[in-house]
Amino acid sequence: MHCFYIFKDKSKTKSHKSKLAPEVKNQSKSDNKSPSSIASPRSIPEMYKEKEHNLRVFSFSELRIATTDFNRLLKLGEGGFGSVYKGTIRPANGQGDPFVVAIKKLNQQGLQGHKEWLAEVQFLGVVEHPNLVKLLGYCSVDGERGIQRLLVYEYMPNKTLEDHLFNRALPTLPWKTRLQIILGAAQGLAYLHEGLEVQVIYRDFKSSNVLLDENFKPKLSDFGLAREGPTGDRTHVSTAVVGTYGYAAPDYVETGHLTIKSDIWSFGVVLYELLTGRRTVERNRPAMEQKLLEWVKQYPADSKRFRMIIDPQLRKQYSLSAARKIAKLADGCLNKNAKDRPTMSQVVESLKQAIEDSEGGASSEKIGPKSSRSNPVTSNQQLHQMGVTDTMAHIAWPRDNSIRAGMNA
Questions:
Q1: CATH code for the part of the protein at 44-155
Q2: Could you confirm whether 302 is annotated as catalytic?
Q3: CATH number for domain 161-391, candidates 3.40.50.300, 1.10.510.10, 1.10.150.20, 3.40.50.460
Q4: Which residue, of 18, 44, 153, 247, is most buried by count of CB atoms within 10 Å of its CB?
C-alpha cells in the first residue's frame, strides 16, 4: 500500500511572523449545509481562538538547535508531510531541565502542506484528553529561505500499536496489554465523537496512529485529516475521499459522505488486526488470505474454527471468551449499513466487558497456562533506562501504506 494524493495545492502563501498564531479560517462549512441550521455549535476554529494562547510559539532557530540542525540521526519517521525528529527543548520560562519532544517538519516539496498542518494545530489546540497526543506548540515562518511549518509534540517512547503487532523484532504484545491499548484508543475516539461541542471525525484511525507512551498508554495522533461532523439537520459531511487503504469505510469511499460511523468501521479493522496479528492487506500471503477482512469471514466468532485466526504470537495466552467478544464487536463495527454500527460509547463498554472476561470472568475458556513471556512494558522500560528506546521512538506519521486522495476535503 502506497501513499498518494490527487490534488493541486491551490493555497497561496501569506506572510506570517513566527510569533503569531496560525491564520484561522472557519472550515466548518460543508457543501450540504441546510438553511435551517442557524443555531449551530461553535466551530473548531472558533473554539481554537479561545485556546490558542495555550500553545507555545517556537522560532525556527529554537527547533533547529533542538534537533542539532535536523540531524538525520535524530529522525524518528518520515512520510508525505515531511520528517519527524527527536528534539530537546527548554521550558518556556527558561527554568527547569530540558525535556525531549518530537518535532514534525513540513517537507517544502511535499504535497501535504499548510492545510494539514493548520488542521493539526487547530484540532489539537482544542481537544484535551488523556488518550490524545498533546501538541506543545508550533513554528510558522515565511521568510527569504522559504516556508517553515513545524509542530512540536510530547515524546512517545514506545512507538505505535502497529509496530508492536507486526514487528517481530519487538516483544510480543500480551493479550491484556492489547485490550488496554485498544480500550484507551476507543475512549479517545469516543471523546472526539461525543465529548466536545461539535463532533470531530478523526478520519484516519489505524494502528500506526495509536502511539504508546512509556507505560504503553495509547494516544491518538495525526489530526491532519480530521473534520468537523455534521451539525443541525445534516446527516453527513460531503468531502473528497481521504484515508488509508484497507481502513476507510466502503460507504464513505463510494459516496464521499463522511460521518462518525466512518471512524467506527476503521476501528473494526484494527480490532481484527489486534486479534490476528495480521495487517489489513498482506500481499505475500496466499490469495485467499491477503485481505484480512475477507479471510476472517471464514472463521466466525461462534465457530470451532475461530481460534485459528488468533495471533500465533500469543502462544494461546489469551481468553477465548474475550476474543469471541472482540470479534463480534469488530463485526458490528464493520456492518455494511453504517447506521447499524455501534457508537464509540457502546464500543467502550463492550471492551470493558471483554477485559473483565480476560481477568477471570470466563476461566472455563481460558487458553493455555499463565504467560511466562516477558512483558514488553517492563522490558521497554528497562531499555529506556539504558537509553536504548530513543531509537524506538515514533510519532504517528503518514507511512507508505497510506492511501489518500483529495486534499480539497
A1: 3.30.200.20
A2: no
A3: 1.10.510.10
A4: 247
Query: pLDDT 10s per residue in the chain (409 long)?
Result: 444 332 333 334 444 444 445 554 444 444 454 444 455 678 888 889 999 999 999 999 999 999 999 999 999 988 667 789 999 999 988 888 999 999 999 876 554 577 888 989 999 999 999 999 999 999 998 877 778 899 999 999 999 999 999 999 999 999 999 999 999 999 999 999 999 999 999 999 999 999 999 999 999 998 988 898 887 677 677 676 777 888 999 999 999 889 999 999 999 999 999 999 999 999 999 999 999 999 999 999 999 999 999 999 999 899 999 999 999 999 999 999 999 999 999 999 999 999 998 987 444 355 554 444 444 444 444 434 333 333 333 333 434 444 444 434 5
Given the residues 204, 222, 263, 357, the one annotated as active site: 204
Q: pTM, whole model, 2 decimals?
A: 0.79
Domain map (residue ranges) of the chain: 44-155, 161-391
Residue type at position 229: G
Binding residues for ATP: 105
Binding residues: 105
Q: Which of 218, 226, 200, 174 has the alpha carbon at shortest distance from 373? A: 174
CA distance linking residue 167 with residue 62, whole number of Å: 34
Does residue 403 contact residue 3 with C-beta atoms inside 8 Å? Answer: yes
What the block records as the C-alpha cell of 294 is 475477507
